[in-house]
Design a protein that fits this description.
The chain has about 675 residues and is α+β, with helices and mostly antiparallel strands. The protein folds into six domains: about 60 residues, Helix hairpin bin (Helix Hairpins, Orthogonal Bundle); about 240 residues, DNA ligase/mRNA capping enzyme (D-amino Acid Aminotransferase, Chain A, domain 1), CATH 3.30.470.30; about 100 residues, OB fold (Dihydrolipoamide Acetyltransferase, E2P); about 70 residues, DNA polymerase, domain 1, CATH 1.10.150; about 80 residues, DNA polymerase, domain 1 (Orthogonal Bundle), CATH 1.10.150; about 70 residues, 3-Layer(aba) Sandwich (Rossmann fold), CATH 3.40.50.10190. It is built from 24 helices and 25 strands. Strands 13, 14, 15, 16, 17, 18 and 19 form a seven-stranded antiparallel sheet that branches. Helix 1 packs antiparallel against helix 2, helix 12 crosses helix 13 and helix 16 packs across helix 17.
Length: about 675
């Protein structure tokens, strides 16, 4: 090709790649495979490397590159990035509406509501259609230039589309939106952090914010961040906030599909309630909805108060961060012998539930927080995540607070407490500690373990105190007459428990491995070990190196498994169990769902959710909690909910129960 042909080919490739980016990120469509798109990108890269004079800043190849920055430069926002007033209940929402209506009594108000993303706000500046600058919110007036990092985000166009359809196109266009990390990517990154022995991120927002502020854009690119536009600052003829969203989408900016026009407060409340029910099914974190006065002229006339616009409000979901007081701290002994400090709190409502306890994890965390008994603390809870103390409000101290005393002896058995080398936890030194054995037994009989119904925590503790069981192998020596004389046990309950014990004598290798409570070995790892080695003997005799050959098992987990089966006490207990139970032969199942991602929604008649997940995993499939473009099948039972709707929208194959059973047959 001559110089002119090369230039034309490069421009054609850029247009084609940008077209498919727009389809994928803005319209949720895909016309060609990822491999085909990668091939186009590779050709463009090769041509540009051979002809660097044709490389432009808006080329798709320029998303990652160059030396790491020494620091970020400051950027002044021409239009301040203001905050949003929060309301927390319908009454406060109606008070807000009354205030704005009172300011303009003759105006007719309608609204535009959108999801309040839990991410990082950014401003994007396009000049002649090309992205020239991206900046963080900062203090609202001055932010940081993060252009190089923003360019790594595929969801953000380097060049706007559809400008030719606008009248009087301005040279400069400003768009604002939210950078976020999906829950799936967040889980994946934290899994990788754990494998490497690195600190995990607290939540997707922190992970996204930390990723954007990396001086090396290659690190940002590896974090797979996403983006939604929420406001068009430049006047492109829009009269309403709803039109701003439509114009952004036409320009190639990804906007959230849940955003909705609401004609009155009642429709806003209905939208809020609907999203609140669906938010656990979303693949990103939100903490409420944002309501805008839809008419932009009215919004302008309402003006601002302090740093917030009067015509905009955030209707927050039930609080996920609250303050409370630590009334006491006690140390619990777990099945591995580690002592975990548990804070007893003044009961408080957070994220829709009453919380009275929160773990302090270990003594290093106590020191890091500087927490004392009597302190006022900030408590955080996200969804179903265990409540966590994240900060101490030291300015509220009275001087009566007490230091947390680290025990020198086990609170359960009185044995000396030790701290192992390179470990953050403190441990009970006794091999016969009552609490350690109790927790081991509770884990052993749990639903995901040996699944022995009738042996709950209180029953296990009672059996141990009566001297009927000392470790897990003693469970199989119990007789009906041992149980009938105990409090809580009638004849029928005793008979049912003995029958459940009998049923558990036949067990899969994966379930048995999980029930042993080996450190770092969860349900998935136990299954992977069973499938890879096929027998308990092989696992017992294998090396750390061979253990690491199992998919998704790193050095830490491999060492833990190896150490467990080199401990004579563990081996004696396992041998004792093997005299009582029979481990079923591992059947190497053909991995017919290998590489396939499935999402389950709604209730199935023929099996439980856990049974369905197990069958999918046995066939090599992956179970995801949320629907995305990467989902292969959505299995829809009775009352499937929002995941079903999203699957239909994305064109993902939906299986009813009959088709699902055929798939896993």
């Amino acid at each position: 090709m001559n110089e002119n042909e090369i230039k034309n080919r490069i421009n054609k490739l850029k247009d084609e790649i940008n077209h498919h980016r727009y389809l994928y990120h803005v319209l949720d469509k895909q016309e060609i495979s990822d491999a085909a798109l990668d091939s186009l990108k590779h050709e463009l890269y090769t041509l540009e490397q051979a002809n660097p004079e044709f490389i432009t800043p808006d080329s798709p190849t320029q998303r990652v590159g160059g030396q790491a920055l020494a620091k970020f430069t400051k950027v002044q926002h021409q239009v301040p990035m203001i905050s949003i007033e929060d309301v927390f209940n319908p009454e406060e929402l109606k008070n807000w509406q009354t205030r704005v209506q009172k300011m303009m009594p003759n105006a007719k108000f309608d609204y535009f509501a959108e999801l309040k993303m839990d991410g990082l706000a950014v401003s994007l500046i396009y000049e002649n259609g090309s992205l020239i600058q991206a900046a963080t919110r900062g203090d609202g007036k001055i932010g940081e230039d993060v252009t190089r990092n923003i360019k790594t985000i595929e969801a953000i166009p380097l060049k706007l589309v559809g400008l030719d359809k606008l009248n009087n196109i301005p040279e400069r266009i400003e768009i604002r939106g939210e950078i976020f990390m999906t829950a799936k990517v967040f889980a994946k990154i934290n899994k990788e952090q754990t494998k490497k022995g690195l600190k995990v991120f607290a939540n997707p927002r922190n992970a996204a914010a930390g990723s954007i502020r990396q001086l090396d854009s290659k690190i940002t690119a590896s974090r797979q961040l996403d983006f939604f536009g929420y406001d068009l600052i430049t006047d492109l003829g829009q009269k309403t906030h709803e039109q701003s969203h439509e114009i952004m989408k036409n320009l190639g900016i990804k906007v959230n599909s849940f955003a909705k026009y609401c004609k009155n407060i009642e429709e806003i409340e209905n939208f809020y309630n609907k999203i609140n029910k669906q938010r656990d099914d979303l693949d990103y974190w939100i903490d409420g909805i944002v309501i805008n006065v839809n008419n932009l002229e009215l919004m302008k006339k309402l003006g601002t108060v302090g740093k917030t616009k009067r015509g905009m409000v955030a209707f927050k979901f039930p609080a996920e961060q609250v303050t409370t007081v630590i009334e006491d701290v006690k140390f619990n002994v777990g099945r591995t012998g580690v002592l975990t400090p548990l804070a007893y709190l003044k009961p408080v409502q957070v994220a829709g539930t009453t919380v009275s306890h929160a773990t302090l994890h270990n003594i290093d965390e106590i020191k890091r927080l500087g927490v004392k008994i009597g302190d006022t603390v900030i408590l955080e809870k996200a969804g179903d995540i265990i409540p966590k103390i994240i900060e101490v409000l030291t300015n509220l101290r009275t001087g009566k607070e007490q230091d947390i005393k680290i025990p020198q002896k086990c609170p359960m058995c009185g044995a000396v407490i030790v701290r192992k080398k390179d470990k953050v936890g403190i441990y009970c030194s006794s091999l016969k500690c009552f609490s350690i054995e109790k927790e081991k037994i509770i884990h052993f009989v749990s639903k995901k373990g040996m699944n022995i119904d009738g042996l709950g925590e209180k029953i296990v503790e009672q059996l141990m105190k009566e001297g009927l069981i000392h470790d897990v192998s003693d469970i199989y020596k119990l007789k009906i007459e041992d149980l009938e004389t105990l409090e809580r046990f009638a004849e029928k309950a005793a008979k049912n428990t003995i029958e459940a014990i009998k049923q558990s004598r036949q067990v899969s290798l994966a379930r048995f491995l999980y029930s042993l409570g080996i450190r770092h070995v969860g349900e998935e790892t136990a299954y992977d070990l069973a499938q890879h080695f096929g027998s308990l003997d092989k696992i017992k005799k294998t090396s750390v190196v061979d253990l690491q050959k199992v998919a998704d098992i790193g050095e830490v987990v491999a060492q833990s498994v190896y150490n467990y089966f080199k401990d004579n006490n563990n081996l004696e207990m396992v041998d004792s169990l093997l005299k009582q139970i029979e481990i079923a032969k591992v059947v190497k199942i053909k991995q017919t769902l290998n590489g396939k991602s499935l999402v389950l929604t709604g209730a199935l008649d023929s099996m439980t959710r856990d049974e369905a997940k197990s069958k999918v995993r046995n066939l090599g499939g992956d179970i995801s909690s949320s629907v995305s473009k990467n989902t292969d099948y959505v299995v829809a039972g009775d009352d499937p909910g929002s995941k079903y709707d999203k699957a239909k929208k994305l064109g993902i194959k939906i299986l009813d129960e009959k088709k699902f059973l055929q798939l896993i047959k």
